[in-house]
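Quick one: structure tokens for this chain, please?
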Amino acid sequence: MLALIAVTATSILAAAGELQVIRTYNVRDIVLTVLSETGEWTTGQNEFVLEFASATRKRLFPVVEPTLSATLPAAGTRSLRSSAHLAPADAEGRYVGTITLPRAGEWTVAVVWSGAASKGSATFSIPVHTPMKGAR
């Protein structure tokens, strides 16, 4: 699994200048940003970058063992849940990840982190679309 994350990190960071914001979320003095090459998540496997930045200093800062999970509420049935695989990227405070999302909809994303400067969590939504034929 670590080899897959390393390959993903290499491929997504190779296009780092071309990453588009999927979602930015502020919690206290921290700005969380989720980015990808397409600027969206679709059903199936998604590669992305998660950044932790200081809102006041406008710089990335390291956190310890961040986690990201996504839940799609389902009426009358059990909710779908998926956990991302995260690995440190090319800079402190930047992590590359993969997550597989089986169904389109408005997913609730939970990010949890700890570190010397801060410890916390954030919950926000990200829409997941069905990819257009031939788009992947």
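The chain has one helix and ten strands.
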